[in-house]
Amino acid sequence: MSPDGLVRCPWADSTDDYRQYHDTEWGVPVHGDVALLERITLEAFQSGLSWLTILRKREGFRSAFSGFDPVVVAAYDESDVERLMADTSIVRNRRKIEATVTNARALVDLHAAGDTLDDLVWSFAPARRDRPQTMAQVPSSTPESLALSKGLKARGFVFVGPTTMYAAMQACGLVDDHLADCHVVAAAG
């Protein structure tokens, strides 16, 4: 039980930042190409780091990457990468910064082909499964996250492995891994 008397998924109990994110965003369906590009980017930056680090730098990421406007980010060049490498408001990892630019370009190409990231991502939403009772029952990847990873890579996206995509699926509400006794589940009815 959390300090506020609510039962949450165990990972959400360590800080107010986690509690807020858990209660208001995690598992809530996200639509729209800009919002999905942001979530995919943040999950890629989280790889190897604490999600808390990314969560606390989220506004910095939004500012640094022009609100995740794919057309603007797709036009970034080496000078922009160098600028971002000096930006302490984000995680300064060259490969991840370059991946964000590559993914924005892939999204622009997706749009040019008449498709949307929203349609692509949500086409991999799995059928509803039994709600997990414990964190041990929450997978780190699934056949659907592997398929999403492959689907994105086939369209030019990078840094979108199956584990990262499963985390994105959780964050964007494609799957709902709130544990059965979590207060979010009870509130949803």
Your description of this structure?
By secondary structure, this protein is mainly alpha-helical. It has a single domain, classed as Orthogonal Bundle (Endonuclease III, domain 1). The protein contains eleven helices and no strands. Helix 2 (33-46) packs antiparallel against helix 7 (94-112). The protein is globular, with a radius of gyration of 17 Å.
Helices and strands in order:
Layout lengths: L15 H9 L8 H14 L4 H6 L1 H7 L5 H5 L3 H8 L8 H19 L4 H6 L20 H12 L7 H10 L11 H6 L1
Helix pairs in contact: 2-7, 2-10, 9-10
Can you give me a brief rundown of this structure?
The protein is mostly helical and 189 residues long. It has helices at residues 16-24, 33-46, 51-56, 58-64, 70-74, 78-85, 94-112, 117-122, 143-154, 162-171, 183-188.
